[in-house]
């Protein structure tokens, strides 16, 4: 009888922890969605709060830290942005925020005056973007990097645009199985979505 009770209790414990995980994930998704909307609207402080709430709900995910770094950078709080991007880098694994992490890591280092590290990080961003996405999109960034003639404001605008296009195409592929990633990897089917 005792042997039968143990597996049953395990199922109950897993079900309870699964509910907590579902709630955490729902909070994470809601906070990330709201934070991204606020970020797009130029409401950086409330966006940052949303991303930090998402990070609290799911602290092992790099995405909220990458977006928190973006919001902080846009508020000119480079020290906070640096801390958030370091956390995102530490947690980084294959994810949708990979390009954002690399781009903002470069921007933060360059704004901190860490020229060599910033240029190395910018080179990593360019290489990853070209490999993962579209080489022609980073033409102007690559030109700045090659000549070492960095206009930080223009670079930020270019990187923001490139990240937006990349993330929008990922979202399109996930929602409809169409777009650039569908052409590259094939159309998603109900079994592999």
Report on this model:
By secondary structure, this protein is mainly α. The protein has two domains: 24-95, Tetratricopeptide repeat domain (Serine Threonine Protein Phosphatase 5, Tetratricopeptide repeat, Alpha Horseshoe); 98-175, no CATH class. 78% of the residues lie in helices and 0% in strands. It is built from nine helices and no strands. The chain has helices at 2-40, 44-57, 63-74, 78-91, 98-111, 115-132, 139-147, 152-176, 180-185. The longest helix is centred in the N-terminal third of the chain and has 39 residues, at 2-40. The protein is globular and about 50 Å long. The model is unreliable at 1-19 and 189-193 (pLDDT under 50).
Proportion of residues in extended strands: under 5%
Coarse structural class:
mainly alpha
Summarize the main sheet.
none
- Count of helices? 9
Low-pLDDT runs of 5+ residues are 1-19, 189-193
Q: How many domain units? A: 2
Q: From the alpha carbons, calculate the radius of gyration and give it in angstroms.
A: 20 Å
Helical percent range?
over 70%
What's the shape? Answer: globular
List the helices and strands and how they pair.
Elements: H1 2-40, H2 44-57, H3 63-74, H4 78-91, H5 98-111, H6 115-132, H7 139-147, H8 152-176, H9 180-185
Main traits of this protein?
single chain; mainly alpha; Serine Threonine Protein Phosphatase 5, Tetratricopeptide repeat; 78% helix; globular; disordered N terminus
Short structural description:
With 193 residues, the chain is an all-alpha fold. The chain has nine helices and no strands. Helix 3 packs parallel to helix 5 and helix 5 packs antiparallel against helix 6.
